[in-house]
Every structure is written in structure tokens, then in C-alpha cells.
Amino acid sequence: MSEVLTFNDVSVVRGRKDLLKDVSWEVKEGQRWIVLGPNGAGKSTLMNIAATRLHPTRGTAGILGETMGKVDVFELRPLIGLSSSLVANAIPANETALNVVLTAAYGMTGRWREKYEKLDERRAFSMLHQWGMSTFMNQPFGKLSEGERKRVLIARALMTDPELLILDEPAAGLDLAGREELVAQLTELAANEEAPALVLVTHHLEEIPPGFTHILMLNAGEVVAAGEIASTLTEENLKATYGMDLSVREVDGRYSAVARRVN
Ligand SMILES: Nc1ncnc2c1ncn2[C@@H]1O[C@H](COP(=O)(O)OP(=O)(O)OP(=O)(O)O)[C@@H](O)[C@H]1O
Ligand SMILES: [Mg+2]
Predict the structure, then answer these.
(1) In what residue span(s) does the ABC transporter domain sit (predicted)?
(2) Under a CB-based contact definition with an 8 Å cutoff, are residues 7 and 23 in contact?
(3) Domain span at residue 22?
(4) Residue to mutate, 20, 45, 207, ligand 1, most ligand atoms under 8 Å from C-beta
């Protein structure tokens, strides 16, 4: 299995604060990762490094066989799909849904543009269609609902057929049915052998799609635990992550957690 991410003692320091501290993490081809941790734990910071948007202060970040700092990030970016609030905030409100997806292709070699424009347009439409958004293709991004926006962002992240797909809280703001639909679609994606390596940041165990294989648990910029979900998502590790006694349930591959009742 080839390496998708090889992070060795990655730290990000801002002022006197360590946003990430000595994070070592390996993601291999075919793996599907969940990243869990309280607000401010450093999840999005870590995702921004994986997506080449941020350089570590210390340590080495290997991404798809290249090392950050030693490679032109613009060569790597088309190989990495990212859906996050950072991406959402960078999109002009008047951009149509189709254009939001289509412009992901502009990161690729400019001189191909004219020849490939129609092809790109068809792929962008098909991506929107796959994520149930084709009827919204002409609607401005700023006028889409939260859930619709999330779907457009995932379609955009997949536009370049990446080798790594990073979804930072894709279910935030979705209604219950919308969440369940997204979980079903991500379950399908996880089962697809052709799909890229997946990294999904979430706050809720209910959002872990069955078929996801690994979990990284962070607290205050440090790794609490990392490994296969079945052996790593334990009540002990959840307590170390959140500082709270939680009781975990798993039914048919779906997880949930609630505070442990004190008798
Ligand atoms: N440029 C910066 N300078 C100083 N602190 C920063 C900077 N960027 C982020 N932080 C801080 O780093 C910490 C980690 O932020 P990050 O966005 O990675 O957390 P997160 O785990 O994604 O949280 P959430 O679950 O709320 O999205 C936060 O405490 C945040 O305030
Ligand atoms: Mg975040």
C-alpha cells in the first residue's frame, strides 16, 4: 500500500501556542480515516497541512510521496480534494454551483483549458448530479442552503479525481435526513475501491460512515490515539480526548455516544 500522508512530529506554533504538537500520522492508500477532537484541538490546522495550505513549523509532512517544503504545492493540489469552511469562505457568493465545481479544474495546467473546457463542463455537471445537485447548477452559491452548499463543495473536491479527499465537517448544518443521506453516500464512497483515500473530520460519532477504517483522536494539538476504529474508538480514548465519561454504542456499524449517567 502506498503512502498518502506521512507526518513525522509535525508541529504548528503561533505565538506561544502549539496548535499542533509532534503529530505523527500515517495514511495509506485505501484507508478511510475519521478525525475526532474537541473544538480547537487542531483538526482543521492538520487538514490544512494535508491539503498543502499550511506549512508545519517543525517536523516533516510527506504528502503523496512528496515532502512539503521541497515540492511545488501547485503540483500537489489537483491531487487533493478539500471541502472545508475555508474553501467555502473563499467562494464568491454569486458564483453558480456549476462554476464552483468547474473552477476546481483551473488548478490544472492552464494551456489545456480551451481544448478541455467542454469535457470539464460535462464532468462538473456529472459531479453535481452524483451529489444530487444538478438541478441547482445555475443557482448562485450564496443562495444555496447550508446542506446544498456542502454537497456542491464535495462535488468540487472530487472534480479533479483526487488521490486524497479531505472533508472537514461535511455534515455540519445538515438536517437529520440530509445527514443520513450524506452518511449513506460516504458509505458508498468508502466501499468503492477506486475512491481516493478519505479523511473525514467530524464532531459526532453518528456521522462515521460504516466502512471507514481508522480514527485519529486529537486533544490540544496532540494525538491521543490513532488506529483502527474498532480497537481505537474506546470509552477510555474518548475520555482522554474530551475529558468526559462517555458511553459508546455501536449498532450495525453506526456509532453514537452520550454522557455516562452518574447513579
Ligand atoms: N493563525 C492562528 N494564530 C493563532 N491561533 C490560531 C491560528 N489559527 C488557529 N488558531 C488556534 O488554533 C487552535 C486550533 O484550531 P483549529 O481550527 O485547527 O481547531 P479545530 O480542531 O478544527 O476546531 P473546530 O472543531 O472548532 O473546528 C484554535 O485554538 C485556534 O484558535
Ligand atoms: Mg475545524
Answers:
(1) 5-245
(2) yes
(3) 3-259
(4) 45
Q: Where are the beta strands (DSSP E) in 169-221?
A: 197-201, 214-219
Alpha-carbon distance of 117 to 81, in angstroms, equals 20
Mind listing the pLDDT tens digit for each residue in 54-75? 999 999 999 999 999 999 998 8
Q: Whose alpha carbon is nearest atom 17 of ligand 1?
A: 44
Q: What are phi and psi of 92, to 5 degrees?
A: -60, 140
| CATH number of the domain residue 220 falls in | 3.40.50.300
Per residue in 79-113, pLDDT tens? 999 999 999 999 999 999 999 999 888 764 444 55
One-letter amino acid for residue 128 of the chain: L
**Total structural domains in the chain?**
1
What does the alpha-carbon distance between residue 6 and residue 25 come to, in Å, rounded to a whole number?
6
Q: Does the beta carbon of 42 lie inside 6 Å of ligand 1?
A: yes
Cα of 179 vs its chain's centroid, Å:
15
